[in-house]
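Worked problem 6 (solution included).
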Amino acid sequence: MAGLGLPGSYSLLLVLADTVGRSILTPRELPSGLVAALFGAPYFMWLMYCAGKQKQSIRLRNES
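Solution. The predicted structure is:
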């Protein structure tokens, strides 16, 4: 998993999540982990969907 994405992209995600968490509710702060999860969960679901489609495509190709 370390080879996925650009180098430093995980740290950039956390910096952006921290910035968004501090600026959305000005007198209060949202935890950066919560904000990162809000961005990361849909992306993770999309990756799982694409991997499933790819496996299904390979399976159908092998059956032919």
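Discussion: Residues 9-63 form one domain.
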